[in-house]
Amino acid sequence: MRLFTTAGRCFTGHGGYLGHHSSAVWWADALGALQAAAITVGLPFIIVLLVMCVSLYMGLRAESKGY
Questions:
Q1: If you write DSSP's letter for every residue of the chain in order, what string do you get?
Q2: Residue 5 CB-half CA count within 13 A
Q3: pLDDT (tens digit, 9 = 90+) per residue, 3-55?
Q4: How far apart are CA 35 and CA 29, in angstroms?
Q5: Is 13 within 8 Å of 2 (Cβ atoms)?
Q6: Nearest 5 degrees, angle CA 47-CA 22-CA 12?
Q7: Which residues, 6+ apart, have CB-to-CB distance to 34 below 8 Å?
Q8: Residue 30 DSSP symbol
Q9: Distance separating the N- and C-terminal Cα atoms of the chain
Q10: What total number of domains does the chain contain?
Q11: Residue-number span of the structural domain to which 39 is assigned
Q12: How far, in Å, are 8, 9, 23, 37 from residue 5 at the CA level?
């Protein structure tokens, strides 16, 4: 990964790759498959976050009762 600076800004050179990949997805009309994959990958994180929220709520409620 190349790293160069211009006027105090740091660039890694990956912006072009992102543009090429997004245009390839648009050209291949694979946006629906990409969205389905993003939802499938993100689902376990939603479950973990919900468990963490419930745990935080239970902990705060127990602390307010003085246990």
A1: ---EEETTEEE-S-HHHHHHHHHHHHHHT-HHHHHHHHHHHHHHHHHHHHHHHHHHHHHHHHHHHT-
A2: 3
A3: 555 555 655 566 666 666 666 666 677 778 888 888 999 999 999 999 999 99
A4: 12
A5: yes
A6: 90
A7: 25
A8: -
A9: 53
A10: 1
A11: 4-65
A12: 6, 5, 26, 35
- Nearest-5° angle of CA 48, CA 41, CA 2? 110
At 24, is the secondary structure helix, strand, or coil? helix
Phi and psi, residue 10, nearest 5°: -110, 125
Report the predicted TM-score, pTM, of the whole model to 2 decimal places.
Answer: 0.49
Separation between Cα atoms, residue 26 and residue 52, nearest integer Å:
36
Single-letter code of the amino acid located at 55: S
Joined tokens for residue 63:
């602390």
Report d(CA 46, CA 53) in Å as an integer: 10
